[in-house]
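Human: Can I borrow your eye for a moment on a structure tokenisation matter? Separate attempts, laid side by side, tell us more than any discussion would. Could you pick a protein and write out its sequence and tokenised fold? No explanation is needed for now; the record alone will do.

Assistant:
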Amino acid sequence: MKTLSRNELVQKSVAIFKGRTEAVLFATSDGQFFIFKDRANMHAKSQKTPLKVYEIERSEVEDQLPKEKETKAAASTKSKPKTVEQIKADVEDTEDLEKLAAMLKEEQEGKDRTTAVEAIQNRIAELEPKED
């Protein structure tokens, strides 16, 4: 079994840190990485020849990680734009003219899809008081 030095493990950790948000990883000298120190220790002790466990902090490789304007976590919390079918369903369930006006404005300033705009406008027309 090949034993890796701490420097080699730090270099390997760059690839691990890229896809993760942890501030610290634990690596064993056989090249295995762990999020929890106790798991790294269990793995290290379970080998015929006990392995060394190294703590590697994100700050050690921060300059080698890609700079993202937005983290994956932040991106996943943003809501995806609704489909026209979703908008139509929302419009049918909405009786608040102010909310419909806001939906119309948002659609026109955003994707401005004709069918979505028409659905919202038609619903507004249905709900507006009729003048005799």
Residues 114-127 form the longest helix (14 residues).
